[in-house]
């Protein structure tokens, strides 16, 4: 039982915070210019009336802590002993909880791996947590522009030309020919993908960017490999992979299996970050450089160009700490840009829209 001396009334059933609040409500308001949250002329509510329906709390917000019901004293608070007993009675998680399979056993297997976007998947990667500036520009401006530039109007009723069959069929002389895939053309030529009109379903996009460096002198000078790995990790933000020589070359004094190169493949925002630096920071500062050759490409939508050691030194990560890297040990790179385009023409259109300059004769 508590006594409120300012009013001379006895109030029971209120804790310290509520008692302090009630005392402040019953006093005369002396807040100079301050907004009051409850009426100062309100009387104390009877003990049998709920606090939420009393006039004292009418002006309070609904999420106020004074409207929170008190904890029932009959409710049992779990003790450490109770928690330990509950934990001992639970089933072990490693045996009875769901774990995605390690191997994919085909689409007909009853147990299927979850999608990579599922947090329980083994290949789940959280993010992305930000959109790269170049990537945001692509989705907001470049992709609609590419569809506009490549739009070809086909009048209604136009007969669609059939696509020629490039693979040979089986003659059916054997029962094993049934349901078999078609054979390749004679002479085993390289079948390039067919170029299809660009629609909203197949707008070209950057798939990956690969950097590769070959240093045959790193066999005798291991410092070249150390500096090359430092430079590569600095400009890409990814740890590179050391490559080995596949064939022995006596003129270069290298033997099969020696470590004489490195490579790294960038995906997603990392690839767009690297292209952004190349387009806006490195390419404009290369002296006497006209652009990427227009004849580059593998006829499948993948383009490439080279970066000399002088061009690599123009990256902001290297330029800011140029004294940390010996100038003669900075490597050059071969840059391979893989796109979803089916032809070099569409891939060149994509990179030109991003800002990559091309010069010379353009090859389809």
Write the layout of secondary structure elements.
Blueprint: E1 2-4, E2 9-11, H1 16-26, H2 80-89, H3 93-96, H4 133-149, E3 206-214, H5 222-236, E4 241-244, E5 259-266, H6 268-282, E6 292-293, E7 302-307, H7 309-312, H8 316-320, E8 333-339, H9 344-354, E9 358-359
Parallel strand pairs: 6-9
Antiparallel strand pairs: 1-2, 3-5, 3-8, 4-5, 7-8
Helix pairs in contact: 4-9
Region (Disordered): 104-132, 152-190
Pfam family, one: Ribosomal_L5_C
Domain Large ribosomal subunit protein uL5 C-terminal: 260-358
Written account of the structure:
Keywords: Ribonucleoprotein, Ribosomal protein. This is 54S ribosomal protein L7, mitochondrial. Pfam families: Ribosomal_L5_C. Residues 104-132, 152-190 are annotated as: Disordered. The chain has 364 residues and is α+β, with helices and mostly antiparallel strands. It is built from nine helices and nine strands. The strands form three sheets. Strands 4-5-3-8-7 form a five-stranded antiparallel sheet. A two-stranded antiparallel sheet has the order 1-2. It has a two-stranded parallel sheet with strand order 6-9. Strand 1 and strand 2 (9-11) form a beta hairpin. Helix 4 (133-149) packs across helix 9 (344-354). The longest helix is centred in the middle third of the chain and has 17 residues, at 133-149. Residues 1-49 have low confidence and may be disordered.
């Amino acid at each position: 039982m508590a006594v409120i001396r300012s009013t001379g009334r006895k109030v029971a059933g209120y804790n310290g915070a509520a008692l302090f609040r009630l005392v402040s409500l019953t006093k005369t308001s002396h807040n100079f210019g301050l907004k009051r949250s409850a009426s100062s002329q309100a009387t104390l509510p009877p003990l049998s009336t709920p606090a939420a329906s009393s006039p004292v709390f009418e002006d309070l917000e609904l999420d106020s802590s004074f409207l929170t019901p008190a904890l029932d004293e009959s409710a049992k608070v779990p003790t450490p002993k109770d928690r330990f007993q509950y934990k001992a009675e639970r089933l072990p998680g490693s045996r009875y909880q769901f774990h995605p399979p390690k191997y994919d056993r085909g689409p007909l297997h009853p147990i299927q791996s979850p999608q990579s976007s599922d947090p329980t998947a083994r290949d789940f990667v959280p993010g992305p947590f930000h959109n790269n500036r170049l990537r945001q520009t692509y989705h907001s401006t470049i992709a609609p522009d590419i569809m506009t530039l490549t739009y070809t109007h086909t009048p209604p009723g136009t007969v669609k030309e059939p696509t020629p069959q490039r693979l040979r069929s089986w003659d059916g002389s054997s029962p094993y020919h049934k349901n078999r895939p078609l054979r390749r053309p004679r002479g085993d030529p390289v079948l390039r993908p067919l170029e299809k009109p660009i629609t909203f379903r197949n707008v070209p996009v950057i798939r990956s960017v690969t950097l590769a460096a070959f240093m045959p002198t790193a066999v005798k000078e291991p410092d070249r490999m150390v500096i090359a790995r430092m430079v590569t990790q600095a400009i890409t933000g990814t740890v590179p992979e050391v490559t080995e020589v596949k064939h022995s070359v006596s003129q270069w004094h290298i033997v099969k299996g020696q470590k004489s190169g490195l490579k790294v493949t960038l995906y997603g925002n990392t690839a767009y970050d690297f292209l952004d630096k190349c387009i806006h920071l490195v390419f404009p500062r290369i002296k006497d450089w006209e652009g990427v050759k227009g004849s580059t490409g593998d006829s499948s939508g993948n383009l490439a160009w080279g970066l000399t050691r002088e061009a690599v030194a123009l990256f902001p990560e290297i330029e800011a700490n140029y004294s940390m890297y010996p100038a003669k040990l900075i490597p050059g790179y071969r840059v391979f840009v893989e796109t979803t385009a089916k032809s070099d023409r569409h891939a060149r259109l994509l990179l030109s829209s991003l800002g990559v300059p091309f010069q010379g004769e353009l090859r389809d």
